[in-house]
Amino acid sequence: MGWKYLFSQTVLQRGRQYQNRGAVRNLVKNGDVYKARVWGRALYSVAIRIHEDGYVQSMTCNCPFAHDGNNCKHMAAVLFEIGKNNADAINGEKNRVYPFRSPENRNEDYYYFDLGRMTSRLVFYDSKVKEARKMVEDGKITLQKVDIRYTHDYRLDGLIGTAEGLVEQNGRTVKAEVVFGKGEIYYARCMVQGCYNIFDASKYSPGLDGLCVHETALLFFAGRVSEAE
Ligand SMILES: [Zn+2]
Ligand SMILES: [Zn+2]
């Protein structure tokens, strides 16, 4: 199944043991979110959002291990439990794509913002990338401005860019933005109704699908800008 790469081998095994011994309780599905309680050292609450295409979009658990930014055994146990009766529900790995590549043999200073490197920690899926591309082509999202400046924040690296886009929704426009640095996407925020996605690199669990379709679309503009310069 397509979600196991989200966990280390050890965590995966513990999750399997938990699920086998019936530690997963009260599994309920509400829309695309699964919620359950898992008995470990204490009773933990797990919530997992699974996209209709079958990939894991986000996971939370209130255990200390997950609090430190890891994907924990309680999450794995819940995924095993979901998969028990409905293996196809979570099998999105085959649709994973790599839409942003680093330019080959290019001068690093010239291509300061390398989208391939910036997005290397993120996961993208075919359906969302296609939808994002179509939004750009159809003019459903437009680039408002790209602002590049020096940051004096010692945690960040040199230049920092903000791409601001406008998304058409019910006859009005709403904002989405992506903040990026040389090697990383730091932050993204989408104000589209029903989306309200916030991506924060410092809280991101590796392997998850962090950006919404609008934020992904903004990256296509960023790619164009860096190619044009
Ligand atoms: Zn946990
Ligand atoms: Zn969005």
Would you kindly provide a written description of the structure presented here, covering whatever features stand out?
- The chain is of the alpha+beta class and 229 residues long.
- It has two domains: 4-93, no CATH class; 98-228, no CATH class.
- It is 27% helix and 31% strand.
- The chain contains six helices and eleven strands.
- The strands form three sheets. Strands 7-8-9-10-11 form a five-stranded antiparallel beta sheet, covered by helices on one side. It has a four-stranded antiparallel beta sheet with strand order 1-2-3-4, covered by helices on one side. It has a two-stranded antiparallel sheet with strand order 5-6.
- Helix 1 (9-20) packs across helix 3 and helix 5 packs across helix 6.
- The mean pLDDT is 85.
- The chain binds zinc ion (2 copies).
- One zinc ion is lined by residues 44, 61, 63, 65-66, 72, 74.
Portion in strands: 25-35%
- Total strands: the figure is 11
Q: Which molecules are bound besides the chains?
A: zinc ion
Morphology call: globular
Assign a percent range to the helix content.
25-40%
Strand order in the sheet with the most strands: 7-8-9-10-11
Order of SSEs: HEEEEHHEHEHEEEEEH
Oligomeric state of the chains in view: single chain
Q: Enumerate how many helices there are, as a single number.
A: 6
Could you say how many structural domains there are in total? 2
What kind of sheet is the major sheet?
A: 5 strands, antiparallel
Brief write-up:
This protein has 229 residues and is of the alpha+beta class.
